[in-house]
Amino acid sequence: MPDIAAPRDSRASVLYADEHKPLTLREAWRVLVKSWPFVSRYRRLVALKCALVFVSLTFFLMTPWPLKIVIDNVIDGHPLTGVPGAILTPMVGDSRSGILVAVSLFLVLTVILIGMVHGEAQALGTNVNSGGLDQAGITANDANDGGSLWNGLFGYLESRITIDLTQRMNQSLRTAVYERFLRSPLALYADQKIGDAVFRVMYDSASIGPVFYRGVLAPVMSVFMFVMAMIVLSFQFSNEPVIVVVAVLFLPVIAIGSSLFGRALRDQSQSMRESGSDVMAAFEERVAQVQLIKAFGQEARETAVVDAASWQSFRSTLRMLAI
Fold it and tell me: Are 90 and 124 in contact (CB under 8 A)?
């Protein structure tokens, strides 16, 4: 008995040929432009999300200053200068105890707002990694992403906003993709695997969240954080400009490394999505033809085909996680 999926393989390879091509910078820009209508309709939530992110980053980047102030101005007794001096001198003057109280209040406020004093804050999120190591399980979390880099009050608010924003974007894109399938000519379904179509509607639609968060917000955050870090370094090491120059020189190295790593990540992510789609398509086609399979006694063979597709999806995910 021939493989049930075989008649469509040659046509499907042509149908999805463009997905195997490397994504150029121009094509990546087109993806962002096409995705933007599904993001821009929720401008209020996007603005709130961005505001919380940037304010939280500002608090995070200011956390080295309190220790410096305590050592230089409280313990060693040096007068306040620069930005700390412009802020604290009108409030507490040159009083060491007043400076210490002001710094302590700032740290308490930081703990309340972003939930950290030293080191890196623990991420706060709603993801539950119970979907398994496959594309469907991973994108099920993407569709319900509500994470935050912070675990204080700002982290709680950002998580709530992110959940709402992610759900709205995902539902809008999912409905649009489904409507596109309904409006497509019938000839499309001669080449389109029904399981693949379901996979794209249910799981690929969840990609709209990562497209915005990682493709738009993350680069803007990185630039903002780099500029703010340079400002902090300039004030903290005003007498050692070499430190600031060395930090700036590392930027091209990081940018080149991120570009190369991002391309490899994209290629493996595409392979993982295709493997996940193959699993759903293989299962759907064999369930649809279950009477034919049983009539020819091919249960063992068709089970092996689905099992092989499932293991291939699992291996693709492991390769993705290894990058």
Answer: no
Contact status, residue 73 vs residue 192, Cβ threshold 8 Å: no
Task: Summarize the confidence of residues 294-299 as an average pLDDT.
Answer: 86
Q: Report whether 141 contacts 181 (CB < 8 A).
A: no
Residues linked to residue 148 through DSSP beta bridges, in sequence order: 124
Three-state SS sequence of 231-242: HHHHHHCCCCHH
CA distances from 126 to 24, 49, 142, 168, 320 (A): 33, 16, 10, 16, 22
CA atoms within 13 A on the CB side of 323: 18
pTM: 0.67
> pLDDT tens across 79-106, in order?
887 777 778 888 888 888 888 898 889 8
Q: Indicate if the alpha-carbon torsion angle 83, 84, 87, 89 is positive or negative.
A: negative
Q: What Cα–Cα distance (Å) separates residue 263 from each residue in 28, 256, 268?
A: 11, 11, 9
**Contact criterion met (CB below 8 Å) for 272 and 316:** yes
CB-count burial class (<10 Å; 0-12, 13-18, 19+) for 260: exposed
C-alpha angle 212-216-219 in degrees, rounded to nearest 5:
135
Looking at domain 6-63+116-322, which of 1.25.40, 3.30.1050, 1.20.1560, 2.60.40 is its CATH number? 1.20.1560
CA angle 290, 291, 294 (to 5 degrees): 85
What six digits make up the tokens of 168?
């709205």
Distance of CA 274 to the CA centre of its chain: 20
